[in-house]
Amino acid sequence: MMHNFIPPDRFFPYLTWTDIRDMPDKSKVVIIQPVGAIEQHGPHLPLAVDSAIGLAVIGKALERLDASIPAFAMPSIYYGKSNEHWHFPGTISISAETMIRVLMETGESLYRSGFRKWVLMNSHGGQPQIIDIVARDLHVKFEDFEVFPFFTWRVPHITKQLMTEKEGRLGIHAGDAETSLMMAILPEQVRTDRLVCEYPHGLPEDSLLTLERNLSIPWTTRDISKSGVIGDATVATKEKGDRILDSLAQGWADVIVDVHKFVQPQLWKEN
After folding, report:
1. N or C: which end of the chain has fewer CB atoms below 10 A?
2. Which domains does the chain possess?
3. Structure confidence by residue, pLDDT tens digits, 223-266
């Protein structure tokens, strides 16, 4: 099934060109572009984790979205900028320049078709800066194009309530949250006999410096992890994964409604 986790009636490639030509009020239709990665996630998870999570979350969100809200998901862009992981076999990484060009040209194609609301749903922590650049540049190029650079994990959700304090602070890759989610999404792809707990080595204690938050240090995965895991996968459960998936899906359904209602401020037109 080409649509995978996406409801078929919400899958953009299943539309015909005449469906799009005749679509009413295309400027208010929300198009969601999942952006993932193919990269190592330790010895227990498949390379497709980020892409799978993005597709599963947006699929569940679209299932619960009211039929009156016009929204469609595009196929995932599976390859991302993953060079922090490329010392581990299987990781596929493209350059920032390549990724920017693919997203810019995809956005321009949507704009040419009459769409004006595009959500970039990024699920890989190594490339939010790229998503931000594309969103800003497309809006500068087309002043009525609303491009939303969103990270899958930044909608309201309950994940941290289910994690230990340490995991919530340090578990950023293939740990409890991602492993639990994969147990709920693709359980047959989780190697439960290979679960690992490994927190980052060599980080300074009592420091303001972090891996991915306000004051981040430069790092590659092999600098801080032998297994490729940064977190505790040994405590993951399907029950937690089901709850995380449900909360993320509801958060995304709410965000899609907000995007549909959003009107771009254009103060300069009032002068």
Report:
1. C
2. 26-263 (3.40.50.10310)
3. 999 999 999 999 999 999 999 999 999 999 999 999 999 999 88
